[in-house]
Design a protein that fits this description.
Distance between the termini: 11 Å
Helix content: 25-40%
Number of helices: 5
Structural class: alpha/beta
Largest sheet: 6 strands, parallel
Amino acid sequence: MNNSSGKILIAYFSHSGNTEALAKQIQGAVGGDLFKITTVHTYPSVYNETTDLAKRELESGFRPELSSEVPEMDSYGVIILGYPNWWGTMPTALFSFLQKYDFSGKTILPFCTHEGSRLGRSVSDLTKIVSGRATVGEGLAVRGSAVNSAGDEVQRWLKSAGLIQ
């Protein structure tokens, strides 16, 4: 991959901290800017309450309002996009994020944390949203409980994407 079209942004949504830890590992390997995707409303801290809410949001097509914006989004050519796998796809906050910006000419590399469902249908959902505007690269799925030992896997993924040697 040629990154001549701009800087690298590592944008991520994290609820439990696993995706954030992985995003920081990725930043350590490629540099780039970190951006945490946050919503105006916060999700419950109790796991089952969060998963119930996430399911209702997904089923209803709800798009939560985001509480922050990426400064100078146009300056980024590569977006490394991270999220936990909720109900087989991205959390609805990612749908809001993807619908907020123009990703024309950008490359998006998705990564997710999960506890068995891997990427689910998140890459196909992502591809549908940015279809015809952005290129979606191969995704990386890391078990949340294995984030701290995923360094080699992250390195292989970034090498295959052409972001490191």
